[in-house]
Specification:
Blueprint lengths: L20 H15 L6 H17 L3 H18 L2 H17 L3 H16 L4 H17 L3 H14 L6 H20 L3 H18 L2 H21 L4 H20 L7 H18 L5 H18 L2 H17 L3 H16 L6 H17 L3 H153 L6 H30 L3 H8 L6 H11 L4 H8 L3 H14 L8 H14 L1
Helix pairs in contact: 1-2, 2-3, 2-4, 3-4, 4-5, 4-6, 5-6, 6-7, 6-8, 7-8, 8-9, 8-10, 9-10, 10-11, 10-12, 11-12, 12-13, 12-14, 13-14, 14-15, 14-16, 15-16, 16-17, 17-22, 21-22
Length: 630
């Protein structure tokens, strides 16, 4: 009868539809209070609507669920937050998935993912990627589902709140189931452990119950690979029973009766498969619990497998009639359900045919096999439709990917083309800039050259004017000096004549003095005046003699430099300059005005052919030094 049992690594439906019948009425009432209260924040009202949509979806009340989704959209216009867009479309995806409209489900999920990318809410991003993995599992794309759930985990990194732990627990549960499908025992154990750890962090009763169920299934998976390790079987039974004991203490918090039903079914199957028939009573207790949950939630797999285990016990007791009756009850109960699970019915009918064969009732066996063939054909058509739908979804997905890839490629090409255009524009702008700069530079250079030529021309003219002015000034100075020189020469000539007259007068005075009485006071006074005059002349002669003796080549050198143009008076001036006398001192000694000394110095400088910037005193002192050295 094991052919009726589902894989013991049970796929629980709390990912997409987290609420079920038992707690739904209470939960719906509390949600309605939030939804209808205008004082509650818009975000909280939208979240409450989305939770109610999930409940209505599990009850197949799709029209009412769609109306609530539209109401959430209207409320969201006031909120304008992409987080709620993603949440709304995620719920819309759940509705379409429950209706087997996979194409619409994927479109809704694409919209949810588009909005999720435009929000910073990591929780929403992780939830959407997890839902994407769930849809890929529906399409049996195990690898993609695994990849998307790992992305969901990366999105949730760094989040330590209970909601994030709840989603992570669910993700680890499905990763563990995938690793079991791939027969990877170590990774399955790793993810199962993480599933329980995160469930306990979330403090969510449904998540914890599901984690215990997953842990029990993990130990059973390992025991099936090595039946000699009885501790694994005991651990499997311990954690599976823990689902039931935990649920009893959390009656008002458990909203997943399916988890309790599956745990009960798994425990019954443990007793049926690994324990003696004497444990039948214990198994029946759990089977009754499983049937109760299966009927309450319309879970036909739980119902069918519960009857399958009961009929299996009847077969072990060789009670074929009882086994057939149990299977007939299962078939009738499943056939009366709106969903009419064709696969489960097909399996039940097949087992009924096998039971008829054991009863040696060929006609009945043939009847059941014919019925099985019809159901198998119906199942084939359903699977063909499902496969067609999946292929259509995959085709649309691949088409969308190709369109996206083409769009990205086109965008990349356009971007690259725009980059080339930008480079060309920049290059053109640079070229124009340099052309403009070159023209501007040439223009400026030409202007500067013209200004330079004009400046040079002006400078030449200015220099010519300055030179002309300088020549005119020099000419004027020469004329002035010549005029002064002529006047000084006249004055000097007059002084010379005056001196000669004085000397003549003094000579006459001496002659008259000789005729006077020597005792006459006037005689003595005149004699003293003559004596002073002779003394002054002698002093001048002594100074001249002394000067010539000390500087024998000084006068000769000056005359050579001046080409013998220096007069006796000029030489006297030069001697006074060499002696270090100032203009004032020379003027006093020679009894002339200071300006006469300046004019005499200028005349001597010209005769000595000295330049304007050369110093007369320095030149005479230098000549005197050379004479001393000689």
């Amino acid at each position: 009868m094991n052919s009726l049992l589902p894989a013991l690594l049970c796929v629980v439906f709390w990912v997409m539809f987290p609420f079920s019948v038992r707690a739904q009425s209470t939960v719906v009432d509390s949600l309605d209070v939030i939804i209808e209260n205008p004082k509650v924040g818009t975000g909280k009202r939208i979240e409450a609507i989305c939770q109610k949509v999930k409940i209505l979806t599990t009850q197949d009340k799709f029209e009412e669920a769609i109306q609530l989704v539209n109401r959430a959209k209207q409320l969201h216009k006031k909120k304008q937050n992409h987080k709620y867009d993603a949440l709304i479309y995620s719920n819309l995806m759940s509705i379409y998935a429950k209706q087997d409209s996979l194409s619409l489900a994927f479109k809704a999920l694409d919209s949810a993912q588009w909005y999720a990318k435009r929000t910073d809410d990591k929780l929403i991003k992780g939830r959407i990627w997890n839902n994407k993995g769930w849809l890929e599992m529906v399409l049996e794309n195990t690898d993609k589902a695994y990849e998307y759930r790992l992305k969901a985990l990366r999105m949730l990194e760094g989040l330590t709140n209970e909601k994030a732990a709840y989603i992570r627990s669910n993700i680890y549960h499905h990763l563990a189931a995938t690793e079991a499908h791939w027969k990877n025992e170590d990774k399955q154990l790793k993810f199962t452990t993480l599933c329980l750890k995160e469930a306990l962090k979330s403090k969510n009763a449904d998540a914890i119950a599901n984690a215990y169920l997953s842990t029990g299934s993990s130990f059973l998976y390992r025991y099936r690979k090595d039946t000699s390790r009885k501790t694994l079987l005991d651990s499997s039974k311990y954690y599976t029973k823990k689902v039931l004991t935990f649920s009893e203490t959390r009656k008002h918090r458990i909203t997943l009766p399916n988890t309790i039903g599956l745990a009960s079914l798994n425990l019954a199957n443990l007793y049926y498969e690994f324990y003696p028939i004497s444990y039948k009573d214990s198994a029946e207790i759990y089977l009754n619990k499983a049937l109760k949950v299966g009927r309450a939630t319309d879970n036909l797999q739980i119902i069918g497998n519960s009857y399958g285990i009961l009929s299996g016990y009847a077969l072990k007791e060789k009670d074929y009639g009882r086994a057939e009756d149990l299977l007939s009850m299962a078939l009738a109960e499943i056939s009366s359900s709106p969903t009419k699970d064709t696969r489960t019915r097909s399996r039940i009918v097949k087992v009924m045919a096998q039971v008829a064969e054991k009863q040696n009732d060929a006609d009945k066996a043939l009847k059941f096999y014919k019925q099985y063939n019809l159901l198998d054909k119906e199942l084939f058509d359903e699977e063909k439709f499902s496969i067609t739908q999946k292929l259509e979804v995959q085709y649309q997905s691949e088409k969308q990917k190709m369109a996206l890839a083409n769009a990205q490629q086109e965008a990349s090409f356009s971007k690259q083309l725009n980059r080339y255009y930008l480079v060309l524009i920049i290059a053109g702008a640079i070229a124009l800039f340099f052309l403009f700069r070159s023209y501007h530079f040439k223009l400026k250079t030409s202007q500067q050259q013209q200004l330079l030529l004009s400046g040079e021309k002006n400078e030449v003219e200015l220099q010519a004017n300055l030179k002309a002015e300088e020549m005119a000034r020099l000419q004027a100075e020469r004329e002035l000096m010549q005029e002064r020189l002529d006047r000084l020469e006249k004055e000097l000539l007059a002084g010379t004549l005056q001196v000669e007259e004085k000397n003549t007068l003094l000579k006459d005075l001496k002659e008259q003095l000789n005729s006077m009485d020597s005792n006459d006071p006037l005689y003595q006074k005149i004699k003293r005046l003559l004596s002073k005059s002779n003394e002054a002349d002698n002093n001048y002669k002594d100074i001249k003699t002394e000067f010539i003796e000390i500087h024998p080549d000084f006068t000769v050198g000056l005359q050579q430099k001046a080409e013998n143009k220096l007069t006796r008076l000029d030489l006297k001036y030069c001697s006074y300059i060499l002696m270090g006398l100032t203009n004032k001192e020379m003027a006093v000694k020679m009894n002339v005005a200071p300006k006469s000394i300046r004019m005499a110095r200028y005349r001597i400088k010209q005769k000595l052919q000295l330049k304007t910037e050369e110093d007369l005193d320095g030149f005479i002192n230098e000549m005197g030094s050379k004479d001393n050295i000689t």
